Automatic annotation (TrEMBL):
Residues 36-470 form the FAD-dependent oxidoreductase 2 FAD-binding domain. The keyword Chloroplast does not apply. Its cofactor is FAD. InterPro entries: FAD-dep_OxRdtase_2_FAD-bd, FAD/NAD-bd_sf, Fum_R/Succ_DH_flav-like_C_sf, Fum_Rdtase/Succ_DH_flav-like_C, SdhA/FrdA/AprA, Succ_DH/Fum_Rdt_flav_su, Succ_DH/fumarate_Rdtase_cat_sf. Pfam families: FAD_binding_2 (PF00890), Succ_DH_flav_C (PF02910). It comes from the Bacteria. Keywords: Flavoprotein, Oxidoreductase. Residues 532-666 form the Fumarate reductase/succinate dehydrogenase flavoprotein-like C-terminal domain. PANTHER family: SUCCINATE DEHYDROGENASE 2 FLAVOPROTEIN SUBUNIT, SUCCINATE DEHYDROGENASE FLAVOPROTEIN SUBUNIT. This is Fumarate reductase/succinate dehydrogenase flavoprotein subunit.
Length: 667
């Protein structure tokens, strides 16, 4: 236990962050010009951190594998960003946001970090408005809000269904300003291959130019990893196909502990799998659950008729529909947290009530919302006796204004009009709550190596509430890391430029080249995707929405064997000395094959159900998650020791002084 020092400040919860900022050391502006920082990943966390650090005066180098920072996966976020500004006057506060986040994470997150997140959330919105982010506004001109799962207030700010894109453009414009000033050197189409440590401190990275194949050395006084999550270990997920764990896993192999790898979020509203040809899944924003009602047929014969194409959902009478979330969770209804909604959908489909050909889909229906909005619009337009067709048309216009791009996307993919026919949805892998272990300052167990956004584990516990990913990424980048990294860098004002012609850089580069040569040395029996798909099926079937001890042990053994076969028989065509996307994928899948085994090992050691980690052996008679606070109220932090089976578990005990531990209930 002693090896993990979370560095949580003392004092009352509401004062911790303010007192901490008052006590930390600073770097004066003249000295910042002599300090270099590397930021790996340029999504919301990395982009905001890079822009802010450069604005403060540090020399920043950014690295992303995309051709532009604006193509980071943050752009795919749809529904919104949380902040406790209480524009609605509905009882929201910093404490309420803090409480909802800890409860939503099933009491497996750090109080101090989560309260700080709530505390700085309002500043994020002001920052983004100042950057020109076009948040939706109400009739009076104030920023509009909508609800998300797991809360009883409206605190989610949004830009139609494109919130991530608009926020990323704000951060990207801030980055561009610093690039133009010469304070940011932007290395696009570069991938971090390894972390370089000198005297125990992170002092740079080895990167590969993905266009030329050149291996490069880059030094800095500190390294920030903001490279996102590892959901693509499942192959099929809502992540971009390029999203990977390489940066975080390279740091893990160098000594950064990896925390809670088994905490993965399954998002309840995704377009269902249509066949083996797919390489990714498409998310339908959780914001749709504000107005869409989720249901399946009440009778199996109706479900079978729908699956066989003999019955259309709009032909099913209201009394023959089971709005199962509203039935099971009357207080929250369709806005229960994601893990609860996902398991409920799986339960109904497993019981035989699924509505697509595979039997793995439920309906998300907007008919009631369309008519409700239509009646309101008719009345406010002076149409007192509008007929149903007029009301429906007006209602569709309102829904289009709120969710139009999402409906358009659904229709393009599924070839069904969601205004006329209910959407079909099913849970899919989305976000990863686990990541590199960090202390209160966002520093990993490697000095000078920081992790921000989804790449760290810190704020969401065992389940992330919707619209909190964007909040955490921007909080870390704009308002936390710029303070805490300065405290560390204040000791480097006399260090001078870090040279790259040292033995440590030489050794790290040699390891990278040797690894590439080993990947190329495979006998060429199978493609990289062959192994990735096999890994994904093991992960989904045995480490997915529910887990049990028998199948988790099977997953560990199967992944270990698959990894050995990968290194023996993978086929990587082309040359390392040029653009080679198969080589890129091979390096990433090699890391997934290690992470997947640690994931299963972590899930096997946690003999409880909490949030997104649902062990079948540990559930209530009603099928809800059954925590074991006496034995498992801790963060699992794994130390790399070679093979995943050799990894050593360290525990950070979670202490709750401001929130009472109790069983989550959304009923």
């Amino acid at each position: 236990m002693g090896i993990l020092d979370s560095k949580i400040p003392s004092g009352p919860l509401a004062d911790k962050w303010t007192n901490h900022k008052n006590a930390i050391d600073l770097v004066n502006p003249a000295n910042k010009r002599n300090i270099d920082v590397i930021v790996v990943g340029t999504g919301l966390a990395g982009g905001s951190a890079a822009a802010t650090l450069a604005e403060l005066g540090y020399n920043v180098k950014t690295f992303c594998y995309q051709d532009s920072p604006r193509r980071a996966h943050s752009i795919a976020a749809q529904g919104g960003i949380n902040a406790a500004k209480n524009y609605q006057g509905d009882g929201d506060s910093n404490y309420r946001l803090f409480y909802d986040t800890v409860k939503g994470g099933d009491y497996r997150s750090r109080e101090a970090n989560v309260y700080r997140l709530a505390e700085v959330s309002a500043n994020i919105i002001d920052q983004c408005v100042a950057q020109g982010v076009p948040f939706a506004r109400d009739y009076g001109g104030l920023l509009d809000n909508r609800s998300f799962g797991g809360v009883l207030v409206s605190r989610t700010f949004y830009a139609k269904g494109q919130t991530g894109q608009q926020l990323l453009l704000g951060a990207y414009s801030a980055m561009n300003r610093q690039i133009n000033r010469g304070k940011i050197q932007s290395f696009n189409r570069h991938e971090m291959m390894d972390l370089v440590k000198i005297d125990g401190k992170a002092r740079g990275i080895i990167a590969r130019n993905l266009v030329t194949g050149e291996i490069e050395r880059h030094s800095a006084h500190a390294v920030v990893l903001a490279s996102g999550g590892y959901g693509n270990v499942f192959f099929l997920s809502t992540n971009a196909m390029g999203s990977n764990v390489m940066a975080a896993w390279r740091a893990h192999r160098r000594g950064a502990f990896f925390a809670n790898p088994c905490y993965t979020q399954i998002h309840p509203t995704c377009i269902p799998v249509s066949g083996d040809h797919q390489s990714k899944l498409t998310l339908m924003s959780e914001s749709l659950r504000n107005d869409g009602r989720i249901w399946v047929p009440k009778h199996k014969k109706d479900a079978e008729a729908i699956r066989n194409g003999k019955l259309k959902p709009i032909e099913l009478k209201e009394e023959d529909r089971d709005y199962y979330l509203e039935r099971r969770y009357p207080a929250f209804g369709n806005l229960v947290p994601r893990d609860v909604a996902s398991r409920a959908a799986k339960e109904r489909c497993d019981a035989g009530f699924g509505v697509n050909k595979t039997g793995e889909a439920v309906y998300l229906d907007f008919a009631a919302a369309i008519m409700r909005y239509g009646k309101e619009k008719a009345l406010t337009s002076g149409l007192k006796d509008a007929d149903d067709n007029t009301i429906r048309q007006l209602g569709e216009e309102v829904v289009e204004a709120k969710y139009g791009n999402l409906f358009q996307m659904y229709e393009k993919i599924v070839d069904e009009n969601p205004y006329k026919t209910p959407m079909k949805i099913y849970p899919a892998v989305h976000y990863t709550m686990g990541g590199l272990w960090v202390d209160y300052n966002l520093q990993t167990t490697i000095e000078g190596c920081y992790a921000a956004g989804e790449a760290n584990f810190s704020d969401h516990g065992a389940n992330r509430l919707g619209a909190s990913a964007l909040m955490q990424g921007l909080a870390d980048g704009y308002f936390v890391l710029p303070y805490t990294i300065g405290d560390y860098l204040s000791k480097d004002i006399r260090t001078g430029k870090i040279p790259t012609d040292t033995a440590e850089f030489e050794a790290a580069e040699k390891e990278v080249r040797d690894r590439i040569a080993k990947l190329k040395a495979g006998k060429g029996t199978h493609s990289v995707d062959y192994y990735h798909k096999k890994l994904g099926k093991i992960m989904w079937n045995k480490c997915g929405m529910s887990r049990n001890a028998k199948e988790l042990q099977e997953a560990i053994d199967e992944i270990s064997a698959l990894r050995a076969d990968f290194w023996e028989n993978v086929r990587v065509p082309g040359s390392p000395e040029t653009k080679n996307q198969e080589l890129e994928k091979a390096g990433r899948v090699a890391d997934f094959l290690e992470l997947g085994e640690l994931f299963a090992k972590d899930a096997l050691t946690r003999n409880e159900s909490c949030g997104g980690h649902f062990r079948e052996e540990y559930q209530t008679p009603e099928g809800e998650a059954l925590r074991d606070d006496e034995n498992f109220k801790f963060v699992s932090a794994w130390e790399y020791k070679g093979e995943p089976k050799e990894a050593i578990l360290h525990k950070e005990d979670l202490i709750y002084e401001n929130i009472e531990l109790k069983t989550r209930s959304y009923k």
